[in-house]
């Protein structure tokens, strides 16, 4: 078999060597607790604060507005529950979208069970919200708008600046789940009027299990994890020092050459899309053609099912993922693909290939070659394809 | 996630295709659920001489179809009627719980093809009285 080709960078990324090198000393030599007053503790404390500065710099925020968490899901839970519980005297209404990550969707459903009202905005065929829908959904009771920066399945980037302006004008808190965007898209929280932002290190070549929540100064929210006085008494628990150091290094690297990197990624992405459309029929691109993450490609192949496609790709040494939740314990097709209006049978045939820094032109060509063979093989087995040919 | 047997049948499915002059054709499942199986039978003197299938579905749906065709090929109608979802799953060294409906579909596809044969030829097949090919296999979880 050829070398393994990894095209699931939206699921997770490998830790870069430079990142791991910075982390290692904080496991063995500099193991002090950042809260301890002796010098070993101070070393850890300084490392944590230096990483905080790096995150703040990238987002155009103040260091005191960055709080480390256990990852994207914790950040989402904290932002949404924290705002809801701390502001329930002002109102009980939250606005989000139908295509959020489950970290947001399930948190909103939890709050509904606790008596909050949630509006789930529709999206168009590209996965984009309608700004007028958002405006019309706002009531006197609205306390939070939580809308993802970029979608994890189809890559569509939302009109964050316009959302931020509306939220600011109406005096409503704006949280964005930017887990897929941070490290890949330039973000300035002030320019975009973002009040809270979730990010996760393993999406940009940092370690797993570490993330952050940006909280604008003055934003009132409850803590999710009670305990010690870490993170300015807002998120208890001894800091994951090596993880935080890794996050800091990874975010710094990600933005060092971001324009160049993205140009390279977009070229690869467009090559992949064009080649697939040239070699395979009955295929559609999901998500917005241009307003999408640099590395995200999402297709639906008619007449075949996503899981058998993934298994076949894996047999050729190619790792991708399906929008269909088939492998994750649910047989229903993805809520995102249904929200953009795809019928069930088409949503079942989805494939996401998410490109990263280590993918090459040669890999793209190899993947398209194999994909073409696999799609044809599965279609030759499919009674739906047989019918379509007869109708043609 | 899958047994070696499932993967082997997925990689090299047996009896894929159509039989243009089939004596019985059965189609079960629906595209909404993400799986459809179509089974073709060639029957002579009560013996299944040939069998082919086409399947739209996940890896275990394709493997279950393939295994089911092997289990009925060359067998009598009575023997084919004894193929159950359990025996298909067991022959594949098991299926994940969430995929058990695939083996149910395989059993139903065989029975649906036999029912078609029975209706076309006015031949009574013991055990098909209560068979409903439109029953949702997802209820069998």
From TrEMBL, chain A:
GO terms for biological process: [2Fe-2S] cluster assembly; amino acid metabolic process. Pyridoxal 5'-phosphate binds at residues 72-73, 152, 180, 200-202, 238. It comes from the Bacteria. GO terms for cellular component: L-cysteine desulfurase complex. Residues 5-367 form the Aminotransferase class V domain. Pfam families: Aminotran_5. The modification N6-(pyridoxal phosphate)lysine is found at residue 203. The active site is at 326 (cysteine persulfide intermediate). Its cofactor is pyridoxal 5'-phosphate. PROSITE patterns: AA_TRANSFER_CLASS_5 (PS00595). Its main location: cytoplasm. Its EC number is 2.8.1.7. HAMAP family: Cys_desulf_IscS. Master enzyme that delivers sulfur to a number of partners involved in Fe-S cluster assembly, tRNA modification or cofactor biosynthesis. Catalyzes the removal of elemental sulfur atoms from cysteine to produce alanine. Functions as a sulfur delivery protein for Fe-S cluster synthesis onto IscU, an Fe-S scaffold assembly protein, as well as other S acceptor proteins. This is Cysteine desulfurase IscS. The gene is nifS.
């Amino acid at each position: 078999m050829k070398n393994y080709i990894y095209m699931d960078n939206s699921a997770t990324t490998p830790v870069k060597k430079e990142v791991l090198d910075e982390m290692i000393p904080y496991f063995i030599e500099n193991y002090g607790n950042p809260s301890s007053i002796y010098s070993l503790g101070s070393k850890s404390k300084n490392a944590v604060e230096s990483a905080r500065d790096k995150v703040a710099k990238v987002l155009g925020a103040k260091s005191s507005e960055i709080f480390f968490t256990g990852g994207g899901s914790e950040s989402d839970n904290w932002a949404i529950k924290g705002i809801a519980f701390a502001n329930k005297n002002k109102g009980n209404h939250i606005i989000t979208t139908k295509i959020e990550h489950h970290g947001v969707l399930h948190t909103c459903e939890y709050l509904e069970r606790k008596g909050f009202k949630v509006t789930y905005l529709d999206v168009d065929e590209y996965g984009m919200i309608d700004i007028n829908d958002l405006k019309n959904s706002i009531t006197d009771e609205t306390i939070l708008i939580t809308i993802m920066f970029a979608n994890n399945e189809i890559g569509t980037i939302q009109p964050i600046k316009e959302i931020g302006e509306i939220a600011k004008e109406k005096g409503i808190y704006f949280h964005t789940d930017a887990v897929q965007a941070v490290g890949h898209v330039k973000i300035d929280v002030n320019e975009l009027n973002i009040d809270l932002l979730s990010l996760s290190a393993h999406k940009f070549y940092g370690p797993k299990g570490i993330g952050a929540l940006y909280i604008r100064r003055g934003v009132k929210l409850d803590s999710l994890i009670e305990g010690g006085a870490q993170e300015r008494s807002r998120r208890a628990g001894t800091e994951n020092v090596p993880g935080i150091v890794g996050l800091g290094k990874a975010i710094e690297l990600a933005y060092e050459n971001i324009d160049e990197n993205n140009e390279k990624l977009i070229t690869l992405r467009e090559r992949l899309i064009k080649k697939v459309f040239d070699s395979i029929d009955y295929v559609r691109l999901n998500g917005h053609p241009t307003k999408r993450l640099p590395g995200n490609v999402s297709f639906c192949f008619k007449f075949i099912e996503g899981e058998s496609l993934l298994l076949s790709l894996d047999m050729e040494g190619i790792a991708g993922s399906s929008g269909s939740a088939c492998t994750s314990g649910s047989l229903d097709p993805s809520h995102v693909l249904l929200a953009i209006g795809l019928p069930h049978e088409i949503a079942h045939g989805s494939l996401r290939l998410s490109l990263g820094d280590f993918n090459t032109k040669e890999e793209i060509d190899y993947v398209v070659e194999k994909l073409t063979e696999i799609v044809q093989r599965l279609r030759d087995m499919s009674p739906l394809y047989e019918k379509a040919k007869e109708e043609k | 996630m899958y047994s070696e047997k499932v993967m082997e049948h997925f990689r090299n499915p047996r009896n894929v295709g159509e039989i243009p002059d089939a004596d019985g054709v059965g189609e079960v499942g629906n595209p909404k659920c993400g799986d459809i199986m179509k089974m073709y039978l060639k029957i002579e003197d009560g013996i299944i001489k040939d069998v082919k299938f086409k399947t739209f579905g996940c890896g275990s749906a394709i493997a279950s179809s393939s295994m089911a065709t092997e289990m009925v090929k060359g067998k009598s109608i009575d023997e084919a009627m004894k193929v159950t979802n359990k025996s298909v799953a067991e022959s594949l060294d098991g299926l994940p719980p969430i995929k058990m409906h695939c083996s149910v579909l395989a059993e139903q596809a065989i029975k649906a093809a036999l029912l078609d044969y029975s209706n076309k030829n006015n031949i009574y097949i013991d055990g098909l009285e209560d068979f409903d090919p439109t029953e949702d296999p997802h209820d069998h979880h």
